[in-house]
Amino acid sequence: MTTVGMLGAGGIATMHIASWLRLGVDVLVHSLEGADELVARHGRGEVVGSLDELLSRSDLVDVCTPTHTHRALVEAAAAAGKDVVCEKPLARTVEDTEAMIEACRRAGVALHPAHVVRFFPEYSVMHDAVARGRLGDLAVQRYDRHGTAPGPGWFRDEGLSGGIVMDLMIHDLDFARWNAGPVASVRAVRSGAEGSGTVAANVVLTHRSGSISSVGGVWSAGPVAFRTRFEVAGTGGLLRHDSADNPVTWTNGGSTPDRDGYAPKVAMGESPYLTELREFLAATRGGPTPRVTAQDGLEAVRIAQAALQSLVVDDAVSLEDAR
To answer: pLDDT tens for residues 99-131?
Structure first.
């Protein structure tokens, strides 16, 4: 039986351990705090006292720790010959991300970035429509993501987490690139100060294809229901979703009459975290390449880092210059 070694016991680790246990693997957990409580809540798993013990007993390592710790832990797992799942963003900087990918390449192990939004059913249905050409030539995409700001600590320290752009909005930056292809330039604006109060940001991507993507994000100072929205428009129609309205993806228009009013039924019964980790686990056992790769994770960090640079220089940043 496969043994997964989980590093970290915070919020995302709760999602991951539940999914790993559903997949029938043995789970070991090591964390500076919270490991006992995490295992107790789920009734299965084993707490181990050190990183070395976890690496020696695991077949696959799942890194669910703060962003600024990812590089050292991924490199340690690679040196131990273990395939790795790593939470997004892969790292705080392009330099660290490239080093992680190179360490895994040299060790001959896989590195799977956990960009879970690619596995959410409404987003998966939307990407399938784009990939199949059902919206024609892609022209404009708009994404919004709005939730309660994380509490004090590393999340709100831009030097550690990358702030709202790198931590929250990277989901949609990745998805916009997945749909419309490579990004030529990035322009970002932000209101509110990272670290306190409500923070809002918007990033506009100009793709090499000429397509435009607008990505918005809000960390609210007060408690709010988490909300996501997207609108994807092409020469053949418009596809939209708003989690505040309903969980079904709707299409208005289409390249053929029978596409008009298309409302696909999405499978809401399975957690996207379970879908994601099942795909990664299958790949480590010789299965197909997952829908998100380490290179995708690197490009997402590159776009987010260029957006942070754009905030500093108050101007558009070319991705080629950023390289």
So the answer is: 999 999 999 999 999 999 999 999 999 999 999
